[in-house]
Amino acid sequence: MRHLQFLTNLEQLRFTGKLTRTAPSQQQWVFYFAQGRLVYATGGEHAVRRWRRNLMIHCPRIPTYRMAWQVDLATIDSASLAMGWEYALLNRWIVQGKVTREQAIAVICAVIAEVLFDVAQAATVQDHIRETPPFANPLTFVEVKEAIFGIHPLWQAWQASKLANYSPDQSPIVRQADQFKALKSPQAYQNLVKMLNGERSLRDLAVAMHRNLIEVAKPLLPYLESGWIELIHIPDLSAPIYRQRLSTKAVDEPVPAKKPVIACVDDSLFVQNMMEKLLTSAGYNYVGINDGLRAIGILLARKPDLIFLDLMMPNTNGYEICEQLRKLTHFQNTPIVILTGNDGFANRLRSNFVGASDFLTKPLDAEAVLGVIRKFLSQDVSTLPVSTNY
Fold first, then answer.
1. pLDDT at 50 over 90
2. Is there a single domain that holds both residue 138 and residue 180?
3. Residue range 194-213: average pLDDT?
4. Pair 60, 107: CB distance under 8 Å
């Protein structure tokens, strides 16, 4: 579940905005954060099937076909679609009294759990974060660590059942019907072929059979290994068509710009790891330096556009490094931001005295880190190409 570590980093940084994770197959998942907590998640191979399944479980009175959703979406304004059509529909149905807030929250939590499981299964992902204004009136906030802890039993059971190479979104289909016909009664055989027809995913079957996912998937393993049954990928259901926000004037496509280089001098590997993932996924190039004595030489070689500088390090301190950097022609105007766990007046005064541009207090906050970069670097990172592998 290593791909979920970055989500816990964003939780610690109290990030607000969107995290988009892209697999090599170009499959994408989107996570919506508010102050480090999850508000919603969507995307993946079967976003609509997932939505439909969880409506069936938690909101049985809501129609589960696309045309009914489109009717409700036609009355929803564009601003309400900030977290996608699924979340907008839940909000609308609560207002209309069609579902309770508790039912909507149950859907949200179940959807987030499925998305987390699927991301955990991905071999590699690329991350891209985008800060956004706070989302209006979220229905619930989900702690990242609690959500990950919640899927852990299913993840362990899936691995222990030797199903790690299979996806719950794959669909079983009978490939050697004669073998089953010889083993089962005619009625049992007909039921088997009807259920395992390559039209429903393992998750769909679990809901239809009122069983959990492991109870449905594990008994199939011997037949998968013998080739009697195959798990295949099936398409998602069609998403509803809804009104998109339209621009009132033509806007030129932004020209991709060179990525700014951000350096962080800090002896903490935890801080280095967190800053690297945050900044590279935000579209910056990152230079991490955990040895204060080697910092000036590395900075001269890389010439970053902005420097984060830890105040207290072994054998040296941020004051000394900042003062030395300001004596060098190249760094006289480079923004230098001091990082410290002690937000005292004396520290701020001395930081200003040695030429620091700004001052951030640990534990670091994503909004503060990205905000101070925007403050000193006018470049819009939304135009930057992003390629960050984890």
1. yes
2. no
3. 93
4. no
